[in-house]
Design goal:
Alkylhydroperoxidase AhpD family core domain protein; AhpD-like; CMD-like; mainly alpha
Length: 115
């Protein structure tokens, strides 16, 4: 699949750039970290469920970087391919053809992080 990022490399590159922003923009990055922690904490929904929602939004919004980070977390949380595929189906329902194309990106990310 040409043109689709290599997700392990992509997430490493983006994480490195974000570390640089932590130095130059510490208040912004601290606020973003707090937002991420609040948006994924256990509550009525499990952390895994919240990450599945985030993945669906990442696909519908066509954000490869977001797909990479959320998929990496989902694999660590034990998400199954069936769970991922159901979320991708919902993302395609909400986002149409472009989301279908990014759903294939998400499957590639799942395969990479599952190795």
């Amino acid at each position: 699949m040409s043109g689709i990022p290599v997700y392990k490399e992509l997430t490493k590159e983006v994480a490195a750039k974000m570390r640089g922003l932590r130095q130059s923009q510490p208040d912004l990055m601290a606020a973003f970290s707090q937002l991420a922690a609040a948006g994924t904490q256990e509550g009525a929904l499990s952390k895994k469920t919240r990450e599945l929602v985030a993945l669906g939004i990442a696909v519908a919004c066509r954000c490869d970087d977001c797909i990479g980070f959320h998929m990496q977390t989902l694999v660590k949380l034990g998400a199954t391919r069936a769970e991922i595929e159901e979320v991708l189906g919902t993302a395609v329902y909400m986002g149409g053809g472009p989301s279908m194309m990014y759903a294939t990106h998400a499957l590639k990310a799942f395969e990479e992080f599952s190795e």
